[in-house]
């Protein structure tokens, strides 16, 4: 910036104008409306004018985002990989000696899969409340330590009743992870960068599938000790150690992260402000909860995720049993399941990359990645059982729906304004996630093993319905943005000045908010 006297002055190094900050009057009764980022800046003598000046340095911005990637993403990715391995230990154990050692039937096995998501369903909203009301990083760490302990305890169980209780509790303690991670990504990244980052940690489901298969294959070599117990004990022990790492290293928010300077923290808050979604507010606001349940976008995402998880509930729990119908050796069954994880990584990362690289392409990605699922379901339904290569290929590509799921799960955190509304919308969409995983396994009838025609038909019907829902969602968001653009053009003014306080407004309340398509 050049002054009238010709002197050059760096806005980023200017002393904050404290008089200008103080002139932004907020009464004591309105303090709960402020975002935590606004309070943090005022306490440290910054204003948004200075923060915006700092954000003009593109080289420093890229360097800062890379630092966030190096510090935050590995913690999210490692946790998600272990979460996937731990919740699928039952399916690995079923390939070996779980059902024989415990005496459970095929139908009881289906219920152990559903009971995990009953626990998820039971604890979903209380977990979201805890994540908003208390320190997010600590909530995540404590739940990791708790589910690792439950997993190790499962090794001592020998009856269906005991397995049912352990699976329910495991679901309870894993419930906060995905909603918290979606909110964490929305805290640290700009809206355009969020799909790829969410895709990075969600793709670790695929990595978990690969490594879980390798671990199980190795543990399966054990003689003289039940293999399923070894799986529970080893996986649970590794996760417990990881929980201690998360407890120490995962920050609760950009404002409390000890690995960043004050200036870097303010820039990260500036990114959150540009998102127009708000960053953090610990006050529960009932009007925002009500608005969340009245938002058609949230309902479409709820139904989309419900249908998606009807598919996942079956594939995750019965996919390896479909392979077992093609080959009889349990070790070979485990080995043939490993490539499916590699396909998942490819689908999720590529989908997240496209959604990040090309603006307003999220709903398009949601549609695109459902077509391989439709093709895979058709192959499993119609191909002859002797065509093992074709059936395996169908099984590998059927998991492409997970890329669509990743985008849909991230949308409530990145496409909804107001912190309480975002938490509510995220929790409600995950309600669909839970219900789908509860219902899905029961379409895979034990009497139809190993073909499971009813389950395959369900997958096909759900995927086609999801295509229609994604198209409807895109139309809804385009219409909302057009209406806001028209209002803004009529007013011929910006709705939010550079120095206006960062308020905890919902997307309905904030006329400057624009929806990502």
UniProtKB/TrEMBL annotation:
Pfam families referenced in this protein's UniProt entry, alphabetically: MFS_1
Coiled coil: none
Subcellular location(s) of the protein: Membrane
One CC-aspect GO term: membrane
UniProt keyword list: Membrane, Transmembrane, Transmembrane helix, Transport
Positions with biased composition (Acidic residues): 492-501
SUPFAM superfamilies on file: MFS general substrate transporter
Protein's membrane topology: Multi-pass membrane protein
RNA-binding as UniProt keyword: no
Superkingdom of this protein's organism: Eukaryota
Region (Disordered): 487-517
Gene Ontology MF terms: transmembrane transporter activity
Transmembrane segments: 64-85, 109-127, 139-161, 167-188, 200-219, 231-250, 298-318, 338-356, 363-383, 389-411, 423-444, 456-477
InterPro entries linked: MFS, MFS_trans_sf
Family: Belongs to the major facilitator superfamily. Allantoate permease family.
Full protein name: MFS allantoate transporter
Lineage: Eukaryota, Fungi, Dikarya, Ascomycota, Pezizomycotina
């Amino acid at each position: 910036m050049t002054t009238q006297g010709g002197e050059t002055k760096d806005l980023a190094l200017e002393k904050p104008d404290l008089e200008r900050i103080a002139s932004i009057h907020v009464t004591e009764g309105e303090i709960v409306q402020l975002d935590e980022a606004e309070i943090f800046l005022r306490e440290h003598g910054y204003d948004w004018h200075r923060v915006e000046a700092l954000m003009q340095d593109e080289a420093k911005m890229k360097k800062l985002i890379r630092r966030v990637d190096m510090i935050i993403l590995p913690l999210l990715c490692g946790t998600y990989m272990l979460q996937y391995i731990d919740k699928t230990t039952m399916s690995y154990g079923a390939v070996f000696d779980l059902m024989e050692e415990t005496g459970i039937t095929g139908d009881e096995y289906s219920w152990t899969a559903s009971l995990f998501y009953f626990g998820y369903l039971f604890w979903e909203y209380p977990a979201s409340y805890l994540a908003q009301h208390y320190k997010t990083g600590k909530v995540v760490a404590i739940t990791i330590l708790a589910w690792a302990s439950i997993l190790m305890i499962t090794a001592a169980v020998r009856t269906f009743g005991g397995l049912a209780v352990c699976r329910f509790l495991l679901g309870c303690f894993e419930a906060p992870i995905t909603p918290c991670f979606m909110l964490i990504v929305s805290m640290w990244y700009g809206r355009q960068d969020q799909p790829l980052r969410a895709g990075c940690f969600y793709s670790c489901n695929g990595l978990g599938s690969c490594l879980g298969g390798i671990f199980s294959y190795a543990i399966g070599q054990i003689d003289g000790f039940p293999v399923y117990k070894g799986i529970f004990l080893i996986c649970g022990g590794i996760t417990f150690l990881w929980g201690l790492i998360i407890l120490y290293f995962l920050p609760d928010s950009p404002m409390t992260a000890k690995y960043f300077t004050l200036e870097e923290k303010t820039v990260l808050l500036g990114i959150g402000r540009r998102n127009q979604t708000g960053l953090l507010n610990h006050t529960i606001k009932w009007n925002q909860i009500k608005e969340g349940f009245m938002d058609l976008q949230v309902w479409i995402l709820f139904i989309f995720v419900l249908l998606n998880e009807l598919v996942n509930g079956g594939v995750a729990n019965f996919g390896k049993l479909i392979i077992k119908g093609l080959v009889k050796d349990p070790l070979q069954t485990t080995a043939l399941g490993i490539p499916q994880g590699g396909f998942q990584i490819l689908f999720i990362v590529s989908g997240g990359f496209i959604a990040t690289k090309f603006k307003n392409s999220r709903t398009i990605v949601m549609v695109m990645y459902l077509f391989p699922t439709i093709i895979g379901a058709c192959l499993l339904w119609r191909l002859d059982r002797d065509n093992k290569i074709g059936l395996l290929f169908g099984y590998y590509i059927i998991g492409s729906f997970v890329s669509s799921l990743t985008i849909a799960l991230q949308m409530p955190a990145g496409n909804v304004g107001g912190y309480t509304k975002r938490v509510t919308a995220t929790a409600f969409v995950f309600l669909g996630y839970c219900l789908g995983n509860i219902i899905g396994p029961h379409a895979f009838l034990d009497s139809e093993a190993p073909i499971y025609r009813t389950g395959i038909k369900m997958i096909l019907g759900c995927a086609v319905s999801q295509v229609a829902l994604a198209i409807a969602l895109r139309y809804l968001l385009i219409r909302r943005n057009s209406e806001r653009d028209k209002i803004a053009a009529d007013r011929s003014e910006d709705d939010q000045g550079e120095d206006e306080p960062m308020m905890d407004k919902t997307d309905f309340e904030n006329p400057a908010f624009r929806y990502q398509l």
